[in-house]
Amino acid sequence: PEKDAGLATVEGGSEKEKEKDKEKIPITSFVYAGLRGRPALVTRFVVEILSTVVDYKRSAEFLDTKRTSASALTRMLIKDNVLMLQRFLRNRAAVRRITAELAAHKAQKVARRRNNAAKAMQGLIRGFLGRRQIKRMAQAMYTKFIDGATEREYWCNPRTNVSHWTKPALLGEFDCGMATRMPSEEERFTVVCGQCATTTATCFCIQCDEPYCTMCYALGHRAGHRKNHAHLLVDNCVQCEFQVGTRYCTSCKDTYCDSCYKHMHKRGRL
């Protein structure tokens, strides 16, 4: 009988559990605030039960404050990062600009140095060529002679008729070539133009029976009957160019005056 009572109790308990199971609602069919299933159940629990607890309210307020401060901190960090990125980009742009300006300044400096060097070289070359040209002009302007009485050399400017016992500074390291020996009064043999009476004659007009220099002959015989006059050339000395040539050297193939012939042919093979 005791065993039967125990069985009855177990059977009675199982029947109560069955009744409770019949009262349970499946979780998948639970609906709350537009949610279904377990999320709806948890939401209902938080809203209707947990939210009434004082500690929950305090925790919720604390978390809300933290959320606000976290948002502000996030915005501040984002702003700082943006400012840092902008600063970095500006610095890189400034570095590139300064680098380009330095390169341009360096190129200008190098170009300026090259131009200055070129100008200096051109100035030196122009100065050298100018001095050389002046010396060449001085060579053509001065004539070097040897005085027959003293046997000393001197330089004469035919344009000014000024003579120097020392070489003119314009000649520099150059000279006027071989010196011409001035003849003595007994040796001098010159033919002067019959018109201007200052220039050495270069031709003799047969009809006029008079010597002329090149300029006077051209002016006096350019028209009229004189245009058809015949003339003979006066062979002047190739060395002094103002005396009439009296001797012809078959070896040199040139005409010399007496004084120049003696001076040029006094030694050596000549």
TrEMBL record:
Keyword presence, Zinc-finger: yes
GO cellular component, one term: extracellular region
Region entry Disordered, spans: 1-21
Cofactor(s) named in the record: Ca(2+)
Keyword field: Calcium, Lyase, Metal-binding, Secreted, Signal, Zinc, Zinc-finger
Pfam families named in the record: ANCHR-like_BBOX
Root EC class: lyase
UniProt-annotated location(s): Secreted
Protein name per the record: Probable pectate lyase F
Organism, as annotated: Spumella elongata
